[in-house]
Each structure stands twice: as C-alpha cells, then as structure tokens.
Amino acid sequence: MDTIAAREKAMARETSSNKSGTAVVAAGAPRPVVVFVCTHNACRSQMAQALAEHMMSGEATFLSAGTDPASHVDAGALEELSRRGIPAEAIAALRPKHLSELPKHVDWLVTMGCGVACPALPCAHREDWGLKDPMGGLKEQYAACAEDILRHLADLRVRMGD
C-alpha cells in the first residue's frame, strides 16, 4: 500500500465526529496538511489560510504560499479578516511565503484560481477554487471573496472528514 493511501486509512480511523457532526482529529493523530496557493500569496490564499485556521482550528495544519510572493499581505484582505473576527495576533502573523517554504508532504493543495501561473506540487488531493481576485477592489469584493472561501472551506471540511 502506498504511503498516501496508508495515511488516509490511518486518518480515517483516528477521525471522529463531535456533536455537531464536524470532523475532529483524535489527540496524537497526524493532522492533514492543507496548503492554499496563488501567485503572490498576498490576498486570496492568505484569507483562505486565516479563515481556515479560525473555522477549523486543530483539524488540520493550514499554510499558504505563492510562486512569486509579494512583499506584504494586501491591506484590503487584512481589513476583511479583521471585520470577520480573526484575532489581531493571527492577522499580524500573516506574511507572503514562497513555495520552497512548504513542507515536503501536502495532503490537500488548493489553488485560488490563478490558472497556468499556479504550480503543480506533489499532494494527495488537488483542487482549484476559481476565486475572483479582490486585490485593489472595493470592500464588497473582499467580502464576496471571503464568503466564497467560507463556502469552499465548509465543503472541504466535509470531504476531509470522509
């Protein structure tokens, strides 16, 4: 049995549901690694990481990176995360990162909709969310992007628990 299949079976045995039906990783069980990737790692992927950490704390390790990282996280993305109740210390910890900073093992690779500029990295599961980039747009565009991310995260949470 290959390593990925073995890890998935082990995770299935070590994952249970709490009273709300949400997947919960048993203490000591390896948490899946979920990586959100876009070109600059400055907006959508940062929002996805922060919202995932807030929504699914402890269920997985959430990271983000880019192929050509920007020098800073987009101010509009940071404002939207603040409006959504992401703690200030979590927001302050966000920084653009290069793909080379990612761990060698990735369970879920989620690209944000950057098409051909997004990389192909080894992973067990890969998907593209096709999110519109709100960078430089109106607050409503950031809010719409965050809503799209939350919808995708809810779906991902269910599939990670399967």
* Class inferred from helices and paired strands: alpha/beta
Q: Unreliable runs, pLDDT <50, ≥5 residues?
A: 1-26
Number of strands: 6
Average pLDDT confidence is: 83
Biggest sheet record: 4 strands, parallel
Radius of gyration: 15 Å
List the helices and strands and how they pair.
Blueprint: H1 3-14, E1 15-17, E2 23-25, E3 33-38, H2 44-55, E4 61-66, H3 75-83, H4 88-92, E5 108-111, E6 125-128, H5 139-161
Parallel strand pairs: 3-4, 3-5, 5-6
Antiparallel strand pairs: 1-2
Helix pairs in contact: 2-3, 2-5, 3-5
Describe this structure in words.
The protein is built from five helices and six strands, in the order αβββαβααββα. It has helices at residues 3-14, 44-55, 75-83, 88-92, 139-161, and strands at residues 15-17, 23-25, 33-38, 61-66, 108-111, 125-128. It has a four-stranded parallel sheet, covered by helices on one side. Strands 1-2 form a two-stranded antiparallel sheet. The longest helix is centred in the C-terminal third of the chain and has 23 residues, at 139-161.
In a few lines, what is going on in this structure?
Helix content is 38%, strand content 16%. It is of the alpha/beta class.
